[in-house]
Amino acid sequence: MPSKRPHPLSTSSTSSTSTFKIANKHKRTSHNISLRRTISKAKLQARHDRRKLELKNPSLKKERLLKNIPQTLDSKRVAVDVPYVPSVEMMEIAKRRMEEAKKVDNEGEEEEEEEEEESDEEMEDVKTSKKDDVTTNIEGGESSSDSALEGEQDEDDDLGSLYDSDSDPETTTSKTPKSKPSKPAPSKEPTLPEATLTALLSLIPHPTAPPKLLLTSTRRARRHDLYQTLSLIFPNTTYIPRGTKFTIPQIAGFATNRSYTHLLIALEDSKSLHGLIIILLPAGPTFHFSLTNFADGKAIQGRGVNTAHIPELILNNFTTPIGRLTASLFQSLYPPQPQFLGRQVVTLHNQRDYIFFRFHRYVFREIAEKNKGISRGDRTTGANDVGVGGQRAGEDLGVRVGLQELGPQFTLKLRRVERGVCEGVEWEWKGRMEKDRKMFHL
Fold it and tell me: Where does the record place Acidic residues bias (predicted)?
């Protein structure tokens, strides 16, 4: 039976025909190595020659950089063929909530005005009482109350002398330059009208009070340690295992009666988390996420231990209407005022409609004495100055800034958005949406 292995000489290659004609294996290997060396040397020599020319004529470098623009995800991005448009029911709910929020704001403004009027009346009463208390001595001098008032005025004059003569509120407002509003970056995505988008984002309010979260599990959950880990990354979260009697709308009603603002349901299967449901109380909407690549903090090498401080929140690359609604949901899960003393930061980065969750802490390390005067420049622009572009910030102070991961880390993907508490599907991800790899929905 003839062998099926082709003969080496039968290989048809136009670029390296001479290589395949060499029968000796060792000579063929050495020939390939020398060929790669000559190619790399030619490239290196071309770079040196180009650098010499660009040093003599800097305009050549500018022209080269303008032509060699790298292709990124944003530059290749195409518009969604079927953009998301809110349903009539969703817009009615949004308008109703906007009216309720306006009523609450108006009531608060009226209360503030009443308090200001009461405080003004009290100040007038105090002034009239002080005028009545002014008495003159037998020699025609003023009483001690007037001297005290003069002392207070002198103190005010001393405090005012600490500032410049231009510290008048009118002059300062007129002299301060007005900051120009930053222009939004042009996007290829079809955007909703501003009024519609504002009404849609009003579905998720952001009160000044910190949110109160309730985390529960699936029926007959086994890995309670995973739920405890999830409860640590969201401040002010209470974990209660779920029983077998109550449904999700019933649990949402119980949580609303106990003044919870969000209901989180982590889904478990085969002793691992695979989903996350977030419900905004009391009346929705409901967000369904798939959860993958969950790694506990113990599985991260060189991790730190998180503290009870409120972290900062970074939301990156949420550009479409449904993406901005999702970002607004994550923003409502964290208190509006972080505690910078803890140096903790939560990052939710959206890339190709996958949301990556990371939990870090800022770490400040002192620079050794022998390296304090050395500047490595900027990684992105190649600048020689310290701190240009934010890559070397703090090195001029003798401190180097880094990040230490605390964990956990996982990946989310938005699967479905429902009106109310599991009442009707508003938006749903389907498999056909990935037919174009350059089309993103968040």
Answer: 107-124, 149-169
